[in-house]
Amino acid sequence: MDIFEILNNRARDLEPLITGYLKEGRPENLMDAVRHYPMAGGKRMRPVVAMVVADAVGGKGKDAAPFGAALELVHNFTLVHDDLMDNDDTRRGLPAVHVKWDMPTAVLAGDALFAKAFEVLAELEVSDDKLRRLLKLTAQSVWILAEGQQLDTNYENNPNITVEDYLTMVEKKTSVLFAAAAAGGAIIGGANEKQVCDLYDYANMLGIAFQLWDDVIGLTGDESITGKPVGSDIRNGKRTAIVIKALSKGGRGHPKYDELLNVLGNQDASDEEVRRAIDILRELGGVSYATELAERYVKSAKEKLSSLPDSKHKEFLVALADFAVARSY
Amino acid sequence: MDIFEILNNRARDLEPLITGYLKEGRPENLMDAVRHYPMAGGKRMRPVVAMVVADAVGGKGKDAAPFGAALELVHNFTLVHDDLMDNDDTRRGLPAVHVKWDMPTAVLAGDALFAKAFEVLAELEVSDDKLRRLLKLTAQSVWILAEGQQLDTNYENNPNITVEDYLTMVEKKTSVLFAAAAAGGAIIGGANEKQVCDLYDYANMLGIAFQLWDDVIGLTGDESITGKPVGSDIRNGKRTAIVIKALSKGGRGHPKYDELLNVLGNQDASDEEVRRAIDILRELGGVSYATELAERYVKSAKEKLSSLPDSKHKEFLVALADFAVARSY
Prior knowledge:
- The structure is a homodimer.
- By secondary structure, chain A is an all-alpha fold.
- Helices cover 73% and strands 1% of the residues of chain A.
- Chain A has 16 helices and two strands.
- Chain A has helices spanning 3-21, 28-36, 45-56, 65-86, 97-100, 103-122, 128-155, 163-189, 193-220, 223-226, 232-235, 241-250, 255-263, 271-283, 286-303, 312-324, and strands at residues 90-91, 94-95.
- Chain A starts with a helix and ends in a 5-residue tail after the last helix.
């Protein structure tokens, strides 16, 4: 199964919808900033998941497209605000909104995208009962996203974070919108309650696996393919599962432990020091631990699909889970 | 009629609702920031308007309380973000969120308040038809608020702004949530379509009158009563109706025109220079123009109440309009 062909085809169907929602508004400088990320592409993973799931439970994928597009607007709103908060300067090969414009414009453009998402939800052509569920799901997801972003900030350079803490943060910051996409797509497609819960869990675990694997290829991948400087997480002092596990294996007093700690969170660390830190993370078993953990999440995620009838849509969801830990970017 | 007694009584009924919505969440540092403005009081004007209007159209005021509280959360979210964007350091006698914490926490606390508002809306105990209308009204209002904030920024120190431009900005930035409160209260209370529109217009004009009068007392009021440094709008270069009108009366070449321009937007202007600028704004008719304009809006706003049956609730709405241009703070 070529999941890219499916991803690309579905994403192409979504473009006019997303463009349409962001067509009208003023003043023009705000609208340019509002459109900056959504119009710069992206894989549209959340709406695609919503649509495929709606198909997979026996409904019509296109009925889930507006809901999925609303989640894509929410996703883009969080990217604009997160890049500002994290001081990340580029996104999708473009300058970040707060860089191309300024802080106030980034705050406002994010707020406007958020507002538009709820306007789209208010006009969904679904039954009233479904509308209420989708609304609550989305609003609660945004609340959880904020919790996750705050935890991520609190955890930076904090030596007491456990792998469990880290996974909770990833669930809140990354998985929750995938889970909302899958559960929402299931609700729209007319799934039974067990299927809705199973699909929520599937996408939640898929999100965790994606993030764990992102952490791995961020250290071991090819910068020209990942698009992210190798070891940037190390310079930023991110306490990923890899780092937490390695530090717990090393233990205080272990010579490599101190060497690792000296580089973690050191923005001025040399490339050589970062390379050495990555070697230590491998040697102490952090990389293999995160890889195996990601693979376990993929396995569990796929098991959650057993309540779905066989179809090409189910096959796509299986393939997407496998892709989470097979990709080099 | 003692409008303060009514405002205070209604506001007291709202407190447990607002407190309840903000009770749960984590981590604690985010929750402290989320609660900072909503728990610091405020007049709760928007929810009070929604509740009184619901009563005034023959419904039950308390049925509009959760919707009103959702708008209060939206209002507080915009205050957190606006203070950050405008670099205002205090609010309700407290340090602003971005001052007490930092920029990222202010962005996130605002986002979380916004998300909570829509969670409250998703759970409103109103008919499905009303729910959709309230949702759309609120989401569109937030979009318009963002437009208004951007226009406000764009208009600073811009010499080409007309009174019409200014009023459009005020409608978007200030009136829109009052209008949503009144229209929403009317929908919940079971008003007919003409009443919903009339009440929207009433609150829209009320909001404009409030802002015009704020501009006036910001120049002519007593700092110890208004709580705002006299002439801060002048140092910030705000092109209020007062300034626009005075400049159009003065005209280029007029000696006072140039004197005024030298102080407008000059953060380092002395108190004496600001006092002199205020005198010029008076002499050129700017202050009386804005006062009369505010009074005209109040008159038109009250006329919009003619489709309501007589009641003490209608009397409150009349008194609130009169208060807009009678207050000294």
